[in-house]
Specification:
The protein is α+β, with helices and mostly antiparallel strands. 27% of the residues lie in helices and 36% in strands. It has a single domain, classed as Alpha-Beta Complex (Cyclic Phosphodiesterase, Chain: A), CATH 3.90.1140. α2 (57-69) runs antiparallel to α3.
Length: 192
């Protein structure tokens, strides 16, 4: 039986990804202990399914198709830098969603409700739309003084606007060089 690590995401345009990659270059000096996300791995994750048999794609597709059909394409802004659990001591460094965040949240909430109804588990954490820029194994491996001085300047940094046109199901294969993402399926917004 074939299995894959699956997740549902929203893609970003190339200009936004280029700006996000550019800010990573600035932040590398502050966060020496970070594992930086490659540009091809930048997206907004709506739902992480984990490892599933590939036959589950059909059931997932039936649920996502309905959610995608209820929403028209829209633009959203990517803005600011944040961290989980906090910017001061992050495990994850991320860029946020600005204008139209409520539309991203609405799509995500409907996806999560639909997937929970189909037996794919409830989310334990509140959904915060973001693009992961870096992950940390050890939160002490960064220059705390420079972080406090420089990061406030990026709090409202504008990475640009991106058109949200589809929801995309990806598989993720973990390799020593980092994860490799493969598109499994996608659904255009506004198409029933």
């Amino acid at each position: 039986m074939h299995t894959a690590r699956l997740f549902l995401a929203i893609d970003l345009n190339e200009q936004v990804i280029a700006r996000l990659a550019g800010i990573q270059g600035v932040l590398e000096g502050l966060y020496r202990g970070a594992r930086w996300v490659k540009p091809e791995g930048m997206h907004v994750t709506l739902k992480f399914f984990g490892k599933l048999p590939l036959r589950e794609v059909y059931e997932i597709s039936n649920g996502i198709k309905g959610v995608a059909g209820r929403h028209e394409a829209f633009r959203c802004d990517i803005r600011g830098i944040g961290g989980f659990p906090s910017l001061g001591r992050p495990r994850v460094l991320w860029a946020g969603v600005g204008a139209n965040i409520e539309l991203v949240q609405q799509v995500a909430m409907e996806v999560l409700a639909e997937m929970e109804a189909r037996g794919y588990g409830a989310e334990e954490r509140q959904f915060v739309p973001h693009i992961t820029l870096a992950r940390f194994k050890d939160r002490r491996e960064y220059d705390e003084g420079n972080v406090e001085t420089l990061l406030p300047r990026y709090d409202r940094y504008e990475f640009g606007s991106t058109e949200i046109e589809r929801l995309v199901l990806y598989s993720s294969e973990l390799t020593p060089a980092g994860p490799v993402y493969t598109r499994v399926d996608s659904w255009e917004l506004g198409r029933a």
